Fold this protein.
Amino acid sequence: MFSPIKTLMGVIAAPVFSPALAFRNITAAIKSKAALFSLARVFRMTANRYPKYQELLASVDFTVQLKIRDGSYGRWYKFVGGRVETGTNLLLHPEVNMTFESPLDMANTLDPFRDRLTVISALKTARTLAIGEEKYIVQFVRILNGAMDSWIEYGTPMPDGTTRYTSNSNGGPLFVYVKDDKIIRITPMELGDDDPDPWTIEARGRKLTPPKKTTVNPFAACIKSTIYSKDRLLYPMKRVDFDPKGERNPQNRGKSGYERISWDEAIDIVSGEILRVKQEHGPGAIMNGSGSHHLWGNLGYWLSARRRFFNIIGTTYIDHNPDSWEGWYWGAVHHWGKTMRLGGSDQFSTVEDALKHTDMIVFWSSDPECTSGVYGAQEGTIRRLWAKEIGIKFVHIDPFYNHTAGMLGGKWFAPRPGTEAALAHAIAYVWITEGLYDKEFVANRTVGFDEWKAYVLGEEDGVPKTPEWQEAESTIPAREVRALARYWGTHPTYLGAGGIPGFGSACRAATGVEWARSMVYLIAMQGIGKPGVNMGNLQKGAPIDSRFFFPGYAEGGLSGDLAGTALAVNMYQRMPQVLTMNTVAQQVPRLLIPEAIMNGEAVGWTNDSATIEGQFRPKPYPMPGYSKVKLYYKYGGSHFGTMTETNRYARMYKTPDLEFVVNQSIWFEGEAKFADVILPACTNFERFDIGEFANCGGYIGFAHSQVNHRVITMQHKCIEPLGESKSDIEIFSLLAERLNLGAYFSESSSELDWCRRLFEATDMTNYISWNQFLKKGYFVVPPTKPETRDPVSWRWFYEGRRNDLPENDPLPSDESGGFKTGLQTQSGKIEFVSSSLKRFDPHDPERPVMSRYIHSWEGHHSELYQKYPLQLISPHNRYSFHTMADGKDSHTCDVDEHRQLVDGWYYWVVRLNPADAAPRGISEGDLVELYNDRGSVICVTRLTERVPKGTVHSYESSAVYDPIGEPGESPDRGGCVNILTPSRPIVKRSHSIACNSCLIEIRPWKTSITPDRTTQAL
Amino acid sequence: MSKWNIVIDVERCTYCNNCFLTVKDEYCDNEFPGYSLPQPWHGHRWIDIKKRERGSGSLIDVAYLPTTCNQCDNAPCVAKGGGAVVKRPDGIVLIDPTLAKGKKEIVDTCPYGHIWWNPEYEVPQKWSWDAHLLDNGWKNPRPVTACGSYAFKAFKLTDEKMAEKVREEKLEVLKPQLNTKPRLYYKNLYRFSREHLAGSVAYHLSDGREECAEGAEVKLLDQDSLVSSQTTDIFGDFKFDDLPANSGPYNLEINFRDKTLTEVIKLGLSENIGVRFID
C-alpha cells in the first residue's frame, strides 16, 4: 500500500535534506503509483473500444511487472486470453521485469508527455531496465504504444463520403481520398484559407505570386496505380528450389519461380540466416544496400529505419557513389569547394535576383521540367513561365531538345556528347580575346587564372581554344558560339548548369569532371554574385523562410546514426535517441558489387562530403580481418536500371559465394526476382511517416527552396497494408525481435510515436499542436517578409564581405581565413588551378589540376567508335524515379514517350534521328536492339529531330529487367539501357558513374518473343 | 445560367501527362453511380495528348495538344445516342452508364474520336470533365489542379461571357467546320496546327571566319504583299510562324548592311531553311 508518511520519512532521512528535492520525489512517487494504477484501466478501456487492440492483448499470454529496483513498490499486469489482471504484490518470476531506479525514473517514463532525453538517459544508465525474453518485452512495448495510438483521430471528412488524408512523395505532397479502406483518388494540395498566403516577387513592373497550391509531377500523378499494382508483393515468398537446410541452387536465381510462405517462416529463415552467417563467418559477412531513393518520409527512409536495423546487426554496407552529381563532386569541388552540396552551388534568393536582374538564362544540360529539379514536382515551372513572359532570353545546351527547351523556346545547341568542355573553353576564349569578362573579380576573387588563360589561348600547347577549334569537336557552328559568348559577356546571365543546377546528364560522363569545372570557370569569369549573375535555372532559391527548422530525410530520422547520416548536423540535439553504430568498417562500392562478390575484391574511393580531401582515400574490399560477404540483404530499388554495365549484377547472383539473398521489396520486379526469400514491404500510404516537400537536407542543403510553399506533411496511414505486406519498420522489428534486438530497435516507440518525436524536434511546435497537425495532416511554413528574405548567394563573395548566408557550410576547419570568411578551397577563393588536386597528384593526366579538354574515353575519338558509332545518352527520367513509378503495370505504361505496347509487352522508348534510322532500316514504332559488347536491350523507337544524327537518347531508371534468355547473358526487353553503359569510373581514382559516355549500335529486332520468354525465329 | 468551359494553352503544355494520368487516377478501378463505370486499366485515352515537332536543328520547336471530350453544345453523341447521352444545363455531356449499356454504336458518333468502348462493362465511355466532383462542390475538374504549367483552365461562365473571352483571347476550337460547338477551347493553337518558316543569316569575315548576322531585316512576302517582317536575333535567326501548311510560294527577302538576298520558298510543313550567307 502507498504510504505518504513512510515515503516522506524516507526522504527526510536522506543524508542531505533538500525541501525541493523532497517535494519532487514525493510527487514522483504519487505520480508513478497513479500511473501504475491507471495502466490496467487504460489497457482494458482501449481493448473494449478497439477490437484490433483486443486482438493484440490476446495474442500473447504473459506477465509483466514494473517496480522500483529496491522493491519498495511496483505492480504487475497479467495478460491471459486477452484479459488484463493486475496486482501490487511483487512477483519473483514475471516474464518481464521492468525496474526503475527511483520513483522519479518511473514517473518520468510513464508520463505520456515524457521528456525523451530524460527517458533515454535513464535507459542508457540502466536506471530503467527491462529484463526478460525479447518477445515479451516487445509485446509489452506494443501494448503500451497501442494504448496511446489506438485513440488518435485524423483526416478530414469530405462531402462525397470519403476521408481526406495527407501523404508525401518524391514528386510532391498529396491529398489522399479514402473510402472503406480503399484509396479513391490522390491529388496535389489546394491550400486552404487558414494556410498562409504565398510570397510575391516584384520584378520589372510585375507582381509575381505563385498559385496557392502545390504541384505534382508525373510519378506522383500516377502513384495510386503503383499502390494497387498487380505486381505488389502481398505475401512473403521463397524461391521454389531454395532450401536453407538443403540444396540452395544459387545458379537458378533469376530463373526459378516462387512460392508463398508465412511471415513466421520468412522471419525464421531470414533471422536464422543472419545468426548463422554471423556465427559462422564473423563480422562483415552480411552486406546491405539500398536504392538511391526510397518512398518519401523521414522515418521510413533508407537513411533512417534501415540504418538503425543494420547498424545494430552489423553490416558491410554498400557504399553509394554520388550518382547524380559525379562531375560536380569529383571535379567542381576542387575549384570552389561546396563538398556538402556534392559540388553544386548554393542558390539563396536567386529566383528574385534572376527575375529582377538577369537578361539570359543558359540551361546547360539542364532540364528541370523533366527532372523536377529533384523532388520539386512542378514548382519551378511557373517561375520559368514568368521569366518567359518578362522577356528573359533562353539558351539550351543539351544533345537532346529537352522538355524545358520545349516549353520555353530559345536557342538550342546540341553538342556531340562529351565535347561540352570544348564549347565552354571556346566561350572563355572569346571572353579573353575580346575582354568580355569581369577582370576585377577574376583578379581579386580567384587564383590561377593566368595559367588557365595561357592554356585557353594556346600559349601552352599551341592550340588556341577558338570557336572554330571547338566546332570540329562539338559540331556547334563557331559563329554561334561567338554570338553566344558576346551576348553572355555583355549581359547579366544566369547559368543553369545541371538540373537543380548541379546534378544530372553531362556530369555523369567520362568528361563529367571537365564539364562541371568549366561551368565553375565560366560563371567565375562573369563575376558570380553580381546582380543577375549566378548559378541557377529558377528551380531553387524561392523566397521561402529558410530559417524555420524542419529536417530533411538525409538528417537521419530515427536511425540513431551519427556516422552514416546527417543526424549530427541538427537532429542529435533536437531529437534525442539511442545511438546506433555499425561496428563493421568494411564496405563494398556500389558500382563494384559484382566484382566484390565474384572476384572477391574491389577498390572503391571514399566520398566523405564534409571536406574536399574526403574523396582521396582508396577503400579496398575486403578489409583486413573481415569476412567476405556471404549474405546479401537487398532493400529498395533495383540496380539493373540505375547502375552501369548491369548484366554484371545479374551474373553475380548465380555465384554460390552468396549463400543467401533476401530482398525487401514492395513490387515483384528487378532484383527482387533474384532473391531466395522476398519480404513484402508496404508503401508509405499504408503506414505513418512525416516529411517535408522536397526537403532532403544533407547533401542538397535547402533543397526545399525549390518549392513555392514549404509544406510539411504528416504522412497518414491512409489504408491498411495490402495483403500481408508490412512497413519496413515492422519488418525490421520482427527480425530484431527474433535476434534479441527488438527493444533496442524500437526504442519502445511505435511508428506514430516516432512521428511525434520528430515533430517535437522541429520549429512546428511554435505554430501548431501535435494533435492539430495529426488531424489536419499538413502545415505550411509562412513565407518570410520581403525585408527579411535571405541575401542572394555569392553576393557576399562578390562584394568581398563576410559570408552572410544562413548556413554553416563549409566547416570552420576547412576555411583558411576563419569561419564564414571564404570558400572551402585552400585559398578561400575560386581556384582555376586547384590546390587540392595539386596536393593529391599534380601530374594526373586524367584529372589535371585545371580544366583541359580531354577526349572522352568512350566517345567519337575512341577506337570503339568504329564498331559502335552511336552515342547513347540516358539522362534522368521524367516518368520513373529510380525505378519508382515505372513498370509494375502503373499508368505510366500508357504514356507513349515512356513505354509503348507492342505485341502485348510495354517496351522502353529509345529516340534517334531519322537520318540514323533510315540506313539501318528502322521506322517509327519499330522494335530495335540496342547493343554493344556489354549486352543488348530491346526498345521501341521514336524517330525525332530532337536528337542530332549520331546521338541516341533514352532514359535511365527502368524498374523492369526481363532478359529473354539466361539472365545477364541475353537481350533485356525490360528497358534497362544501363546494361549498355560502361562500368569504368570517370577517373580511375573515384567511385563514379559515366553512363552518358556509351557507344552502341542499333539494329531492327526481328525475333518474336513468346510470353514465356523463350525465343523463336519468326 | 453559367456553364462549364475549358481553355487549354497549347504553348504551355509540356507533355508531362499529368492530365492524362490524373483522369486515369480518378476513373480506373472507381465507379461513380449515375456518372461512370470504371475505366479499363489500360488502353483508353480519355485525355489524349497529340504531339508535334516543327522544323529542325537549332530552330526546332515542339507543341502538344491535349484533346478530350469537347462537351459539344451540338453534340452528335447526344443526337444519335438514343437518349443514353444527355446534355446537362451546365454544358456537360454525360453518357448514362446504365442506358448506354451495349450501345457500341455511340462510340462512332464522336467526330473527335473521344468516346471509348469498354468491353468489360460493355459501355461507351468518355471523360465527363469530372461532373461527379463538380456536383460535389469541387471548383475545378482534376486536370486543372494537376497541370503544373497552368495550361489547363476551367471557366464556369454564361455563354455570353464565354463568347467575349473567346473573342478577346482569340480562342479556337477543333474542327469548327463540323459545327458541333465545342466547349473546349484552345489558346495559341497555331503552335500545333500551323507552320513556321525559319532560318539563319550569316556572313564571312575577311579572314574567312563566319559571323552571325544580327539585326538583318527579313521580309516574307506573298506575291508583293508583306506577310510579315522580322529582325534577326543575336544568332542571326528568324522564324515566321502561324503560316498555313502547303502555302506559298513566298518571296523571302533578307537585307543586311545594304546587301539584299531574295529567294522563292514553297512551304510544305514547318521548315528550317538553314543558313543564308550574305557577303
